[in-house]
Amino acid sequence: MATWPTELLAVIWIGWLVSWTVGSFWSARTENRPVTWRARVHRLPIIIGGLLLTPWTAQLLAERPLWNPGKGGTYALAVFLVAGLLFTWWARIHLGRFWSNEITRKAGHRVIDTGPYGSVRHPIYTALIAATFATRAAVGTAAAILGAVLITFGLSVKARAEENFLSSELDPSAYDSYRRRVPMLIPFLPRG
């Protein structure tokens, strides 16, 4: 059953979504975007995963948690969630006007390899995956586990599609060099 403090996580996510949407108006002009289903196939698992993560889905399905982190554990996971979502904002601000919700090449687009982009090539996705797993741990239902897996899958598909697109749109030698130096999603793992 959805109760406070797990609803706190939903409130945090809603606040982030609203701020993320409002921030989307601050972006450079799009010069090119892939127009294939492969560039958008990531959306469905992310949307379904997000719905499965909500405490209201567990309530609707009359699903009992597989574990209960307790109020203290849930509040600790909420702090982890906020840290992850703040990291997404740091990465987005660092990317500046090159950021887009879609896979695109913006006017003047170049490889950004400083700040959070020096640790992983897709820090926004990395932080969203971490925030998703914090939410999954707090909600503790089978639906939440499936939701976290679907979101992780969707973001990894989007990251690969974005890399293929940017490799062809930006200076190939600069992007290939970046790929060799910096891991894709998980810091300190092998590159590629």
State the end-to-end CA separation: 42 Å
Helix count equals: 7
> Which H/E pattern describes the elements?
HEHHHEHHH
Largest sheet: 2 strands, antiparallel
Q: What is the helix fraction of residues, given as a range? A: 55-70%
The geometry reads as elongated
Cα Rg: 17 Å
Question: Which structural class do the helices and strands define?
Answer: mainly alpha
Account of the 3D structure:
The chain is an all-alpha fold and 192 residues long. Helices cover 60% and strands 3% of the residues. It contains 7 helices and 2 strands. It has helices spanning 6-23, 43-53, 55-60, 70-95, 123-139, 142-169, 172-181; strands at residues 30-32, 105-106. It has a two-stranded antiparallel ribbon. The chain is elongated and about 50 Å long. The model has no long low-confidence stretch (mean pLDDT 89).
What's the SSE blueprint?
Elements: H1 6-23, E1 30-32, H2 43-53, H3 55-60, H4 70-95, E2 105-106, H5 123-139, H6 142-169, H7 172-181
Antiparallel strand pairs: 1-2
